[in-house]
Design brief:
190 residues; alpha+beta; NADH Oxidase; 7 helices
Length: 190
């Protein structure tokens, strides 16, 4: 018996951000994507994640933030060509969603569990976008670890960037990649 969910999960692929284009999700679809992203395991209901949306001209404005951060933090590598790449980085897809881990100081909920919940939110975001017919890629790159970018995003001390999810319409089909053989990654205890 065929199972549409399993078929979807076993064939889902990320599309390289360079292959994403218009159109992007509508406002209603973005809301659906975010609702699905927030339906993940969350011990003690801490909501250890939040989302920042970049679309329209905000992508270009944030590109300047990236170029400025690059120029400040990577002086030797900040050639005019590199800075132009950074200015256009968020223009590669019609929608970019930053997923922010916000770790709560709760002894009953270890930081590790909160990080795992944030990763699950990232994956659900990707799956929801794909389920609506869009393509996506979850990436970090240098700017996820940049102090200047952290400041520009107004992150608190307990917050970290888990990733940037780029969403758009795939301009070409993704190529399947090798997957690990189960006998290489699975053992049975006992």
């Amino acid at each position: 018996m065929a199972n549409a969910v399993l078929d979807f999960l076993t064939t889902r692929r990320s599309v390289l951000v360079k292959n994403l284009g218009q159109p992007g999700p509508s406002d209603g679809e973005i809301e659906t994507i975010l609702r699905v992203a927030s339906r993940v395991p969350d011990h003690k209901k801490l909501t250890p994640w939040r989302f920042i949306i970049f679309q329209g001209s905000a992508r270009e404005q944030f590109g300047q933030v990236l170029a400025d951060a690059c120029a400040m933090e990577e002086e030797a590598e900040a050639s005019p060509k590199r800075l132009e790449i950074e200015r256009g980085r968020f223009m590669r897809a019609p929608l970019v969603i930053a997923v922010i881990a916000r770790l709560n100081d709760r002894p009953s909920v270890p930081e590790w569990e909160q990080i795992l919940s944030t990763g699950a939110a990232c994956q659900n975001l990707v799956l929801a976008a794909n389920g609506l017919g869009y393509s996506s890629q979850w990436i970090t790159e240098w700017y996820a670890y940049s102090p200047a970018v952290r400041t520009a995003l107004g992150l608190a001390e307990n917050e970290r960037i888990a990733g940037f999810i780029y969403i758009g319409t795939g301009q070409e089909a993704p190529i399947e990649r090798d997957r690990p053989e189960l006998d290489e990654i699975v053992t049975r205890w006992g």
